[in-house]
Structure formats: C-alpha cells, structure tokens
Predict the 3D structure of the following.
Amino acid sequence: MNRIIAVLILLVTFSSCKNDRSKTSDGTVETTSGATKKYDSLIYPEEVHFKSMRQVTYGGDNAEAYWSFDDKQLVFQSNNTKWDVECDQMFLMDANQTFTDSIAPPMVSTGKGRTTCSYFMPDNKHIIYASTHLGDEECPDTPLKKNGKYIWPIYDSYDIFVADLEGNIVSQLTNEVGYDAEPTVSPKGDKIVFTSTRSGDLELYTMNLDGSDVKQITHELGYDGGAFFSPDGSKLIFRSSRPKTEAEIKEYKELLAEGLVQPTQMELYICNADGSDLRQLTDLGNANWSPFFHPSGEKILFSSNFESERGFPFNLYMIDIDGKNLKRVTHSTTFDAFPVFSNDGKYLAFSSNRNNGGGRDTNLFIAEWQD
C-alpha cells in the first residue's frame, strides 16, 4: 500500500493546525556541501530519546526512508514537484546528505506510474519497490474520500520489482492479478514480506529474494499490511483493520471490491515469521500503524493518533512486544510517522510535519537515538 498516501489523506485534517516550530535561519544545507550539522532546536523538550536531530528534506511529501544493510544510504519516496515528479517516485541518498528544493537526489525508479514502499536488498546494490507503471505510465487517480470517510486506493496494477541503484529494473518478482506491494526484507537477508490481494483479501505473504516459495502468512478478513521483520528475522509486526461487526464487514468488502480501504481504525498485530502465534498487540482505538522493531527486538515503535480527539496529532509511541509499557516518544502538534531504525540501532529516520512553517509539507528527519 502506498503509505505516503496516508500522510496526504491525514494531513487534510491538519489544515487548521499550525506547527509551533519555525524554520531555523540556516535550516537548509545543500547536499553538495556534505554537511551533517544537527539542529537540536528540532527536538521538543519531552523527546528524551533523541540526542540530536537533523532535517533531510525541505518540501513536498517525503516518507518511508529505509536504510541500506550497511547503513551508508537510504531510499525513500517523494512527490516533490520541484524534483520533476508528478506522483511518488523513489530516490536515493547517502546517510549524511540533505536536500533542498533545488537540489534533488538521484531517482532510482522509472519515473512512470506511481511507486511505493522501496527497501534495500542485502547486497546494498539493489532495491525492491512496487510500481503501477506496467498498468499505466501515467500517475493513477488518488481518491481521498468516499461517503465522507477517508480512504486509501489499492491499485491492482501494483507489482514488485528489483532495481539497481542506477534505476534499472533487473527483475519482476510478482505478476499475479491484483495488488502486490508493501515489500520489506528480513534483516537475515533471506525473505521478503509483502501484501497481496491474490486470495481475494489483503493478506500478508512471504517469498524468497528471487520471488520463489510464496507462502500466505495471514488468513483473517481485513487489511493486513505494512509488515516488518524483527531484527533476528523470527517475527513480523504489521497493521490491520480487521472488521468485526456485520456492518463493518459489509463496508470493508464493498470498498475492497472497488479497490479501496479505510485507514482510520487499525491496530497492530504480531506473529512468527511463518504466521504462527498470531496475536493482537495494541487495542488503543483510532489508527495505529507504521510499526517498526526496536533494535532489541523486544519493543515496537509506531505511529498513532489514539490520544487525539479530531484525528490529529499523530505521534510516535513505543510498546513492549507483550503489549506492556506503552510510552510516548514524540510530542508533535501535527504528524510524526514511519519510524525506521538504522541497522546498528544508532539512528532513527522518520517523517514529520515539524519545522514546515505551518504548511503541509512532510519531511524526512534523522535523529540520533538514545535509550
């Protein structure tokens, strides 16, 4: 699923909320300088897990930044029109780079269709991502609401591809009819988990790095997506809508038949990598999503608006894998999401509306993490 669409949809509700942070006077550093200056003014006083922080992008909607296995680079998606894209495409950056509107990182997707959910392969020389370009080279329409409710489109033209770091597609991993997207790679370097509608519902599957040995992991009605492996590759954490009542089930099935889902009621689930021992991790209400394992493998970092009365703000929270010790990590007044730890556990990349001058830009930030 194109998770940056979540940002665009949810930001519609943020139009009346102004960020209380203003951009620092020297707040942009061009990538050509190689500067890695950290702006501690970006950190709210209560954010004790952030030792330092720097802003990576300055404009557009930027999200889902994932580290290479050696932590030297990140790949992320952006729709920044000043980078000559009309909808989300994939971009590559070195871990110490920062980008202005006028200096774009190299694009590593085709520039055709809409892309989502890129991730590094273990060799650090290739990435995987989902794209609609085989169905249509133009950007697909993005409906935001249906019957007054927020929705996500589930494009049935999404398939999963492997590309080198120059943007050349070297293989296609899926070719089933329907939605195949949201791939992430196990830290062990042996498996990919992804979401597909090939069963008629949005379920999780795993496969080998070459697309072989596809196995269905989840089997219950509901949107299961945004899955990540634990650091040792033994577990999966993911979000799910899981409709329960007769009315909820009817609505879910009708929307899915139209290629749509509602993202406003989601909880986190955890299971073994083969789908066994599945259990619900959170029961907080509202939208709990974009989970990622803490380097210890014993905690989960995720984004939620469960404390919000009007749909925002979204903040980052941390919870033990047994569902105990829920703790708030960020204290934004608008939107924080997509937390991703570096493989060495020293840094956290995430997306935020902080320091955007009160607008709707969603930018990438990298924080130095401390437990």
Notes: The chain is about 5% helix and 35% strand. The two ends are 31 Å apart (CA to CA). The helical segments are 4-11, 246-257. Confidence is low (pLDDT under 50) at residues 1-39.
